[in-house]
Design a protein that fits this description.
It is a single chain. The chain has 159 residues and is mainly alpha-helical. The protein has one domain (2-157). Helix content is 75%, strand content 0%. The chain is built from six helices and no strands. It has helices spanning 2-19, 23-33, 50-66, 78-97, 102-131, 134-157. The termini are close together.
Length: 159
């Protein structure tokens, strides 16, 4: 049962990557630093280093700011989409590594990133249309991504 839950969490962290590409690396880094996921002695132990956590946190804050700019490209253009795939796969693999399923969880993170990218764009567009402005929709998506990313990693600690 634990393997299925780990794969589900990897899928969910991938969905978060589809919303905000840099949230999952920051979330798994914080999870490793705080001991929510045990990365000691694995290929991913560097993720939990305080310098890595600081860098990913700064990058996350930068993404939250730049996403609000009018010239920010769509998440569906190839470079943006690729960044979300890489981020989702990476974060999924980090979560999976803690429970011995890095490759399966890398795949789940990739699938989640596709779902989050396409679904997130659709949901944000719908909300922006309903509200009449993109800014509130973008802020809502920011909150969902950050809270969701850290919630997934916190849930991983309960396994």
């Amino acid at each position: 049962m634990t393997q299925a839950l780990v794969i589900l969490l990897a899928l969910l962290i991938g969905v978060v990557a589809g919303l905000r590409a840099l949230t999952p690396p920051a979330a798994v880094a914080w999870g490793g630093l705080l001991g929510w996921i045990n990365l000691d002695g694995t290929w991913a132990q560097w993720v939990a280093h305080p310098i890595t956590v600081a860098i990913f946190t700064i990058l996350l804050i930068g993404e939250l700011i730049t996403d609000q700019l009018p010239k920010t490209p769509s998440r569906k253009v190839p470079p943006q989409f690729a960044a979300r795939l890489i981020s989702g796969g990476f974060a999924g693999a980090v979560i999976g590594t803690a429970w011995g399923h890095p490759w399966t969880c890398l795949g789940a993170g990739l699938v989640g990133a596709v779902l989050g990218t396409l679904g997130g764009a659709q949901a944000r567009g719908w909300l922006a249309t309903k509200v009449g402005k993109d800014f509130p929709a973008a802020l809502t998506e920011d909150v969902i991504a950050v809270v969701g990313g850290f919630a997934v990693v916190a849930l991983a600690s309960a396994l």
